Amino acid sequence: MFNPRKYAFGLVNCILKNGGNIYENTKATNIKFKSGFYYITANGRTIKSKYVVLATHFPIKNFPGMYFLKMYQDISYVIAVKTKSKVFDGYYVNESSPNISFRNVYEKNGENVVLISGNGHKVGRAISDKDSYKFLEDIAKKLFGNYELLNKWSTQDCISLDKLPYIGNFSKILPNIYVATGFKKWGMTLSNVSANIIADKILGIENKYEYLFKPSRIDALKNSKAFGEQMKETVYSIALNKFKIPKETIKDIKKDSGKIVMFNGKKVGIYKDTAGYCYMVKPICTHLKCELQFNQNDKTWDCPCHGSRFNYKGQVINNPAVFDLRKL
Ligand code: FES
Is the CB–ligand 1 distance for residue 183 below 6 Å? Predict the structure, then answer.
């Protein structure tokens, strides 16, 4: 167990000390290959580069590679609680379902801060009347009695069909572009593995672990059950769902919740806030046009196809989508 924030600062300092630069708030939205170089569109400008590492969580480039056919995303919920009770030391994860993990953060003046996380599901499959955070709070209550809720949030990760990450060449037909994804929530470890393999590839050094994670392996697709489910979800959400006409109207939406309803003869996604103000969006994902579902836990629009997420105002908060929803 280590402090990831301190660790990230260590990496940042190392990059800066060695003459590297880090650009925040620079969102890549497109990548094109021409005459041996990549041209990356970011914030309306173009960056030219010989090498590209797609460490964008879900790759933002759809073709070639087609990672959207061989990966899905799972969401986990997290709460941070403060308690005066005695807590465990370390980091634990259960092996039954739903998966829950526990980690103590610090102890100060007899008070402990603990993270409880898990209770996840595939993105876009939130059950509307199930409060995932309350489930975690019930565990906190059972373990510690009295506690103070400090914060809550959700996070998600990509999972390949054979559960191993994709690390290495993004595609056989494009040179010098690499991918690191599908960490299945083991990103602290696998990001280091990826960094070593991809750095070696760029420097032309053989890496004996590379073959294990080759993105072009076909074993991932041999998991036909997972592949079939992925295809079914995509077809259903891209095509079939769109013909469904919702029976409900704007009046049927309770305060602080959201739904897809008919409004002025059109299907719209509406979130009604606690004051009754409505935020309307076109509920179609800007990645490959699947129909979105409302996630009541976080008040977000989630995509069941490949896991993009948008806040209720329509801003994209998780890729592979890179563009916001249309506001209505
Ligand atoms: S994430 Fe691919 S269609 Fe929504």
Answer: no
Number of domains in the chain: 3
Closest atom of ligand 1 relative to the 320 alpha carbon = 1
pTM score above 0.85? yes
* For the CA of 290, the nearest atom of ligand 1: 3
pLDDT digits (tens, 9 = 90+) for 48-82: 999 999 999 999 999 998 999 889 999 999 999 99
Nearest to 149 by CA among 131, 162, 161: 131
Instruction: Supply the CATH number for residue 206's domain.
Output: 3.50.50.60
Ligand 1 atom 1: residue of nearest CA? 306
Are residue 102 and residue 118 in the same domain, yes or no? yes
